[in-house]
Request: fold
Amino acid sequence: MNMLMIELLTIALLTALVCVIPGVFLVLRGVSLMSDAISHALLLGIVSMFLVVRSLTSPLLLVGATLAGFAVVVLTEYAMQQFKLHKDAAIGLFFPFFFSCAVILISVYTRDVHLDIDMVLLGDMVFAPFSRHSICGVDCGPHAILLITAMLALSMLVVGLLYRPLVMSIFDPLIAHSVTISSNHLYYLMMFLTSMIAVAIFSVVGSVVVVAFMIVPAATAYCTARSVKQMLVHTSFYSINAAAFGYFYATVADVSIAGSIAAATGIIFMLVVMGAPQTGMLGKLWHYGETWLKTCVMLVVKHQKGKTIEVSSLKELYGWKRWWACCVVYYGLHMTKLIKLNNKYYVRE
Amino acid sequence: MILASWYPFLVPLCGVMLIGLLTGLLGTFAFLKKQTMLGDVVAHATLPGIVMAFMITQSVHSLVLMTGGLVTGLCAVLLITFLSRYTVLHTDTLFGIVLSVFFGIGLVLLTQVQKMPIASQAVLNKFLFGSAATLVYSDLYVLLLLTIVVSVIVAMFWRAFILVIFDTDYARTLGIPVTMLQIVLHVLTVTVIVTGLYAVGVVLMSSLLVAPAVTARQLTRSVTSMIWYAMSCSIVACALGMSVSIVFAHVPTGAAIVVVATVGAFGTLILCRELKGAV
Reply:
C-alpha cells in the first residue's frame, strides 16, 4: 500500500464515521429522507455562491451549500406545519425544486466553467487526495481529511454536550418540553449539523451515496441495538466495516469507491436483517418453528403419557407429515420428554 | 408554414404532456397512499437495471434500457414491501436504504461499463437529466399505448383501487384481491416512472408525481375530481415548462417543468389557505 491508498482509505473511514451521529439522529427521529433532500438541495447553494464570488475554491461555496441544505429543511418543516402536508409529500415537493433551480442556473450562467453536475451527483473519491492543504509551505494532508475531521470533532462535541436533551427530545418531546427543552430548536440544530456534514462529504462521495452513508448503517443498528448508546456503537461498527470492505472491493475491481461502499452497507444491512441472532428474520423464523415444535411435543406428552410411540403412529394419530413427525420426535428427545427404546419411543411421565 | 417550423417542438411537447397525464394520474394514488417518495426511490433504483441492460445488450435503444430499469425498479418496490412487513424499520427509512444502495450498485456497474470501449456517457446523461427534446414520432405511439393501457386498467378497477388505498382491511373483508391490486398499482407506477425518466430524468421525476397531486389536493375534496385536477395541472406544468425551455434556449426541459410545477403547487397552497382561512 502506498501513501495515496492509505489516504484514500482514511478518507473512506472518516467519511463513514462522520455520518454516524447524523444518521442515528435521522433514523430515530424518522426523517431519513431529509438527508436525500439536503444532499440534493446543497447544489443550489454552491451554484448561487459561485455566481457571487466567481471562484470554485472559495470556502464561501461551502457556507452557501450548508445554508441551502438547511433552507430546504426549514421550508419542508414549514409546509408540514402550515399546510398539514404529509412528511413524504413535503420532502418530495421542495428538494427537486432546489435542484432544478441549480440546474437551470448552471446551464444558463456557467456553461463555460467546470461545474459538472455529474460530479456533484456521483462524486469521486479518487481525486480527493490531490487537493491538498498547506500552511507556510508545509503539507498538512488533503482538504477532505481536515474538513471531515473537523466535522467529526464538532458533531461529537455537540452530541457530547447535548446527549440527554437530544435523547429526550427524540423519544418524548412532551417530557422534554416540560423541562424547558425545545425539541424544535434541537431538531434544527441537528439538521444544520447534518447539512454541514453532508456538505463536507458530498464532494467526496456524491449526493445520492451520502444517503447510504448516513441512513443504512444507522438503520442496521436500529434492528440490533437496545439503547441509543449501543446504537451509536453498532452504527460505527457497521459503517467502518462497510467502508473498509467497500474500499478494498473497489480497489481490487477498479470501480467507483463511493458506489461500492454504498453497496457494502446494503449487503451488511441484508446480512444483519436476515441473520441477527434474535431480531433477524432467520432467528425469528427459528423461534417460531421452535415454539411450534415445543407445542407439538407437549401435545404428545399430554396424550401419550407412559406409553410407547412410533413415528408412524404419530403420523396416523395427528395427521402430520412424516418429516414433521420426525422433527417432533427429535425435539422430544432433545427436551428429554421422550426416551429411545429400540425403534420406539417411550413418553416419560 | 408556421406549423412546419413548430413541428420539431410539437412531438416532444405532445410526448411530455402524455407523460404529465400519466404521472398526474398515478401521483394522486401515491399521494393518497402517503408514498410519494416512492417515485424518487424507484427512479434511482432503475440505474442498475439500465446499466445492466446496456452491459448485456450493448444497445442504447430506449426500450431495452427501460426494460432493465423496469426490472430493478420492481425489485426495489418488492424489497420495500417485504422489509416493511418483516423488520421494525419505518417505510421512510426503508425508502432511503433502497434508494441509496440500489444507486450505489448502479454506480459500481457504471464504472465497470466505463472501462468498456463504448461511449456510455450517453446512457448516463439520458438517465440523469432525461432528453425530452429527443422524443421522436415513434416514441409517441409507445406513450399513447401506455396511456391507453394505464387509463383502461385504472378505469376498470377504479372502485377497488380507491377502496384498497383508503381502507385495506375493509377491502379484504369484501373479498377484493388486495395484494393483487397493490401489485398492479405498483407495476403501473414503476412503468410510468421509468417512462418519465426519459422526459425529466431521475432527480426531477419525484417532483412530477408530488407537485400536481399536492396542487389538486388543495382544490378539491373528492378523489375523482382530484385525479382530474392533478392530470390537468401536470399537463399544464409540462406544457409550460416545455415552452419555457423552447423560448429560453439554454434552460433544460426537465428543470423548467419542475420549477413550474412546484411554483404552481406552492402558490396554490398559499392561495387556498388565504381563501379558506385556517384549515
Summary: Chain A has two domains: 3-210, 283-347. Residues 78 and 90 of chain A are 9 Å apart (CA to CA). The two ends of chain A are 68 Å apart (CA to CA). Chain A touches chain B through 64 residues (CB under 8 Å).
